[in-house]
Amino acid sequence: MPKNGDLQKKSVSKTIARGVASAAKTAKKSAKAVLMTGRTMSPPVEIEPRVIDSPALRALRKERRRLTEELKCQELLAQDRPTTGNHMADDASEVEAQAKSLALRRHLEGMIKEIDRAIARAEKGTYGVCERCRRPIPEERLKVMPSAAFCIECAKLQTRPMKVVTVA
Ligand SMILES: [Zn+2]
Fold it and tell me: Coil, strand or helix: which one is 54?
């Protein structure tokens, strides 16, 4: 019977047509997805506290590593000083160098603590939010100072009392 062959031909062409249609559909969908992601890429309005921002966290961890290395170097240098042994440092410049070295180490320790606090904030999801006024800290400030806990306005208010009070 010729009818059978006709039917087969028809169903084959139908399947092909269906295949083409579904391929077109998926292509359309992926094109739409590209458009959608393109739309979400536009700069978001920052009102909500930032959730863990991995580039920021990475920058913090990198900076922490760098500071820890520097602190280690400074500690080794301090240990290597010949005057820290039996006899007192009587050379004025040596005394000054020791004081400078100690100040530098204290400074590095302080910076590492700041970074630890910033990492803790990132883990809590409050990184990039001013600890005083709760407003988002501008991106440019975080880029320069990733461990910033305050916005510029609040930092100005904080620096004076914070320098008087020694944080143990
Ligand atoms: Zn603030």
Answer: helix
Domain extent at residue 117? 54-164
Q: Does the pLDDT at position 45 exceed 50?
A: yes
Q: Are residue 38 and residue 60 in the same domain, yes or no?
A: no
pLDDT tens-place string over residues 54-109: 788 888 999 999 999 999 999 998 888 765 444 555 678 888 888 999 999 999 99
Cα of 65 vs centre of ligand 1, distance in Å, is: 28
* Residue 72 one-letter amino acid: K
Q: What is the CATH number of the domain that holds 85?
A: 1.20.120.910
pTM: 0.56
**59 and 10 share one domain:** no
Are residues 63 and 33 part of one domain? no
Measured in Å, residue 134 CA sits from the centre of ligand 1 at: 6
The helix/strand count (H/E) of the chain reads as: 5, 0
Our measurement of the distance from residue 51's CA atom to the centroid of its chain's CA atoms, rounded to an integer in Å, reads: 11
